[in-house]
Amino acid sequence: MMVKIQNASYSGTVYDSLPPLPEVVFAGRSNVGKSSLINALLGRKDLVKTSKHPGKTRNINYFRADLVDLPSFYAVDLPGYGYAKVSHDVQLSWEKLALRYFKGTQNLRMLLLLVDIRREMKTEELLCLGLVKESPAKAIVVATKADKLSNSERKLHMQHLQNQITGTMIVSSAKSRLGIDQIWREITLAIA
Ligand SMILES: Nc1nc2c(ncn2[C@@H]2O[C@H](COP(=O)(O)OP(=O)(O)OP(=O)(O)O)[C@@H](O)[C@H]2O)c(=O)[nH]1
Ligand SMILES: [Mg+2]
Predict the structure, then answer these.
(1) Is the minimum distance from the CB of 174 to ligand 1 under 6 angstroms?
(2) In this structure, which residue's CA is closest to atom 16 in ligand 1?
(3) What is the CATH number of the domain that holds 65?
(4) Phi-psi map region of 146: left, alpha, beta (phi>0 left; psi -120 to 50 alpha)
């Protein structure tokens, strides 16, 4: 799959009035690799700020991708949830922000729900999948940081995750670029 990216740039936040385009939203636990995955997909090292310290992304940021021979779209970077060290108030404001996004968006085409391949799906992940159940947007689970496991471990962990949900699941690594082509295939189908 060869997607050519003409331009990728930061557009603003959920509070700005941006020109409408199809949206692909990246959601998942804090530190799971949302921002890194957007950078890997858009082929830009530092378009989205990433951090070793969970909780880096605090707003809903829109990154516009203009592609050759395909529609432009926004990669929407949701803040991570579930970081144990943030206060209860911050957790609540995550929920508010996420709900505002999912209820407010008219253009959501796909949810990429990221889960660390070494972890399992918890209540928050299932809740998140539930948020798009009624919408026409497709939901895909992306198991991140696959480079941290050996091939055989990867298989085991994927079987475990696949037992928890039905639907498409993609193994990925922003580091080794495993799964990036497969994610692009899904994105191009969703935005077409
Ligand atoms: N080994 C490895 N590390 C990764 C991968 N993806 C992300 N990381 C690392 O994981 C940490 C968190 O990555 P981010 O992309 O900032 O995670 P995030 O989900 O955007 O985090 P928040 O914005 O806090 O919600 C960083 O240190 C990244 O370098 C991956 O595929 N492999
Ligand atoms: Mg982030």
Answers:
(1) yes
(2) 50
(3) 3.40.50.300
(4) alpha
Token readout for 67 is: 């592609």
pLDDT recorded at residue 55: 63
Ligand 1: centre distance to CA 31 (Å): 5
Which H or E run includes 31?
A: none
Q: Is 50 in the pocket of ligand 1 (CB under 6 A)?
A: yes
* pLDDT tens, position by position, 18-52: 999 999 999 999 899 999 999 999 998 889 888 77
Domain total for the chain?
1
For 56, the domain range is 5-191
pLDDT in tens, 74-133: 999 998 887 666 677 766 677 788 888 998 999 999 999 999 999 999 988 998 899 898
What single letter denotes the amino acid at residue 116? D
Running DSSP on this structure, what letter comes out for residue 16? S
Find out whether the beta carbon of 117 lies less than 6 Å from any atom of ligand 1: no
- Of 13, 26, 31, the one to substitute when testing ligand 1's pocket (max ligand atoms within 8 A of C-beta) is 31
CA distance 103 to 98: 8
User: Do 135 and 167 contact (CB within 8 A), yes or no?
Assistant: no
pTM for the structure as a whole = 0.94
Residues with Cβ within 8 Å of residue 44, at least 6 apart in sequence: 8
